[in-house]
Write a structure and sequence with these properties.
This protein is mainly alpha-helical. The chain has one domain: MFS general substrate transporter like domains (Growth Hormone, Chain: A). Helices cover about 75% and strands about 0% of the residues. It is built from 15 helices and no strands. α2 packs antiparallel against α9, α7 packs antiparallel against α14 and α10 packs parallel to α14. The radius of gyration is 24 Å and the shape is globular.
């Protein structure tokens, strides 16, 4: 205790000070907290990038079979309807997983759920590598859908736990980047590298193993909470504060992912029809351009207000799809790819705006559930129209006619989404 008459005792260095410095030096020159704050920011960024990279890998793995379907079809002699069923099985399994496991990480923590998802994805990749029949291919897609649905909500919630604004942007950017990378890399492997039906899957498996080590080293961002078994009952978790924004965002998310379903199911065949080349790279280029431009758009518009970004998205979506249909009518490959890039702006802006409008409003123990709802809406948009298009092509329709019908439906969805945004946006109170 300091004497009232004696000289004041020098203060002890704060925890921010270097403990190896002499006390006088620590007192005489108070260190700025800026370096420590910068170090904390860099660490958060590193963790954010690490989690985002797992979504990239998961979506790359889900897109990797797309350029290979023609190879499988040639080897195993199945119909285009079978391709549609395999495509739809992934979406159905993912939706079921989101509804039943999407909220689990809010109760048991993010890391266990992410690691379980990675384990499931590795099993799916092993099945792809060993696939010698449609049955194995279908099983691989189902396991892959379950694994992705298990992990994607937990990963997204973990990114928002770390940094809500940047985490929301990362949630919107990573899927498009992964889809683009998976499609193009697999197409290049099929075109120019040996063992195309195994090489891409082996590379993805190695990346996932490395990422699982990173997950183990990450600190847990969500404490355990009771109710883990009850959370497995399938339901959509929509907290009160997110309901109105979700009504605004849901039609946009459905519309932009319906566009992704268009390219995932009909894109390679359309490219073959327009270019007149069976090249796998050409077939994967349309989806690669769409998803790549979407990711770039998401990043460039990250600072704009979410409601404005969604309006940009719906406008670009409608304009881009209209230009795509015009290019198909004119049989113009260059016009088709250019219009696809415009549509990619709509995809990226609409998806980013919807995620950013809703996800940051959720409390920490609600984030995985809310993100699972957003992804459920998105994958319904991806799966249902694409399956309907595949059935239409097989039963009585043709590729071009089905493309016109599908594109017109996407334009109508975009128009409805834009009108809904204008109708549901809050109006400023009038001044008296």
């Amino acid at each position: 205790m300091t004497s009232a008459r004696g000289p004041a005792r020098p203060a002890l260095p704060s925890p921010d000070c270097d403990q190896n410095l002499p006390v006088a030096e620590a007192v005489g020159s108070r260190r700025s907290p800026a370096p420590i704050a910068d170090a904390g920011s860099r660490l958060r960024t590193l963790r954010l990038v690490g989690l985002a990279s797992i979504i990239v890998t998961f979506l790359a793995a889900s897109a990797a079979p797309t350029p290979l379907y023609a190879t499988y079809q040639h080897e195993w002699h199945f119909s285009p309807l079978t391709t549609t069923v395999v495509f739809g099985a992934y979406a159905v399994a993912l939706l079921a997983s989101l509804l039943s496991l999407g909220r689990l990480s809010d109760h048991v923590g993010r890391r266990p759920v992410i690691l379980a998802g990675i384990a499931g994805q590795l099993i799916a990749l092993v099945l792809f590598i060993d696939a010698h029949s449609v049955t194995t291919l279908l099983a691989a897609r189902i396991v892959q859908g379950i694994a992705t649905g298990t992990a994607i909500g937990a990963i997204g919630a973990g990114m928002i736990d770390i940094d809500p604004p940047r985490g929301a942007v990362a949630n919107a950017t990573a899927p498009g980047l992964g889809t683009s990378a998976g499609t193009l890399l697999t197409a290049f492997a099929v075109q120019w590298l040996p063992a195309p039906t195994t090489l891409a899957y082996l590379v993805l498996a190695a990346v996932l193993v490395a990422q699982s080590v990173g997950v183990v080293l990450l600190p847990e961002t969500s404490p355990k909470a009771p109710g883990d078994w009850r959370s497995l009952a399938p339901r959509l978790a929509i907290p009160q504060q997110t309901r109105r924004p979700l009504l605004t965002a849901a039609p946009v998310l459905f519309a932009v992912w319906a566009l992704a379903g268009f390219y995932g199911s009909l894109g390679p065949s359309l490219t073959d029809h327009l270019v007149g080349s069976p090249s796998v790279v050409d077939g994967g280029l349309s989806l690669g351009i769409l998803a790549g431009v979407a990711s770039l758009t998401t990043y460039l518009l990250r600072a704009a207000p979410p409601s404005r970004v969604m309006l940009i998205g719906t406008a670009a979506l409608a304009a881009g799809v209209a230009a795509v249909l015009l290019a198909i009518w004119m049989r113009s490959p260059a016009g088709f790819f250019a219009a696809t890039a415009v549509a990619g702006v709509g995809f990226g802006a609409g998806f980013q705006g919807g995620i950013r409008l809703v996800a940051p409003l959720a409390d920490a123990d609600q984030r995985a559930g809310v993100l699972s709802v957003l992804y459920t809406v998105s994958y319904l948009g991806l799966g249902l129209p694409a399956i309907a298009a595949g059935v239409s092509v097989v039963h009585g329709g043709n590729l071009v006619t089905t493309s016109y019908q599908y594109g017109t439906a996407v334009i109508a969805l975009a128009a409805f989404a834009a009108i809904n945004q204008l109708r549901t946006r809050p109006r400023p109170s009038s001044l008296r």
